[in-house]
Write a structure and sequence with these properties.
single chain, about 290 residues, alpha/beta, two-stranded parallel ribbon, 11 helices
Length: about 290
């Protein structure tokens, strides 16, 4: 066998420069990701396109006081029943604002629940700029409002949709609720980033983490996971992993179609049936 011919110095230099250029570009992309995380992960909208009144529902317009006096806009939608079956604290996702959650407003009202919807800092009419710790503080302020108004903690069901599920899992660790519902939620934000970048170091620079999966071991309230099988933004495998990690009692509702944003509308019947079955289980469990 003939010995391998050594690379010419010029060829070696091209390889070295090529690798160095790749590393430099990747490092630049990672640095930009770290600096621009707030813009990449949060898409607040100021305009409220609808209110519960557009659904024919009575509601109270509220202003909550968050951390450091931050004002948070909220809607309190009472149950139509003489006594609400539960009180829902709804935490929306990273895009839009609470006015984009009308499917949930209608569904939980039809199930006989009272519900509190609010906008995180920087969303809708709420003051401030969003970040992970800030969203946690805002969720805590909403919880404290309900308790201060006389709602027993054991009556509150925390619902988190998409990124809101990451916030909801944090809140459920701080304040054990009656139940926790995770809708189209990821196992963690770095896990989502890792799936979209070819090289693992990218997720290491993500400092907005929302470790939903990690927190489930600490939550002993009933858990419902709702996820679309055809969700391409947060793939269905995230929902399956969350369900597997949750303590019993737990339920998984698989929506058969629809993407991350549309599944709750196009599979509204399946979504509502899943919520109804879970709420019945929670009531039976006491």
């Amino acid at each position: 066998m003939l010995p391998a011919r050594p690379l010419a110095p010029a060829h070696k230099q091209r390889i070295i420069w090529g690798l160095a250029g790749f590393v430099a570009l990747y490092a630049l992309a990672a640095a930009l990701l770290r600096v621009l995380q707030r813009r990449l992960f949060y898409y607040p909208r100021r305009q409220l396109k609808r209110t519960p009144a557009d659904l024919g529902l009575a509601y109270t317009n509220l202003w909550l006081t968050g951390a450091h006096g931050n004002r948070l806009h909220a809607w309190y939608v009472p149950s139509s029943l003489p006594q609400a079956r539960a009180v829902v604290l709804f935490l929306h996702g990273n895009g839009g604002n609470m006015s984009a959650q009308m499917d949930a407003v209608q569904a939980y009202h039809d199930l006989g629940c009272t519900a509190l919807y609010f906008d995180y800092r920087g969303y809708g009419q709420s003051a401030g700029r969003p970040d992970e710790l800030g969203l946690y503080a805002d969720a805590d302020a909403a919880w404290q409002y309900l308790v201060a108004q006389g709602t027993p903690p054991e009556q509150i069901i925390i619902v988190g949709r998409s990124l809101g599920g990451g916030v909801a899992s944090w809140l459920a660790v701080q304040h054990p609720p009656r139940a926790l519902i995770l809708e189209a939620t990821f196992v963690s934000l770095p896990a989502v980033v890792a799936e979209r970048f070819l090289f693992p170091p990218a997720y290491l620079v993500v400092n907005h983490t929302y470790p939903t999966l990690q927190r489930l071991a600490q939550i002993h309230a009933p858990v419902l996971v709702v996820h679309s099988r055809t969700d391409q933004l947060i793939p269905y495998r995230h929902g399956k992993r969350l369900y597997a990690a949750a303590n019993p009692p737990k339920q998984l509702v698989t929506l058969p179609r629809g993407d991350h944003y549309s599944a709750f509308q196009v599979c509204n019947a399946e979504y509502r049936a899943g919520l109804a079955a879970f709420l019945a289980m929670v009531e039976q469990s006491g």
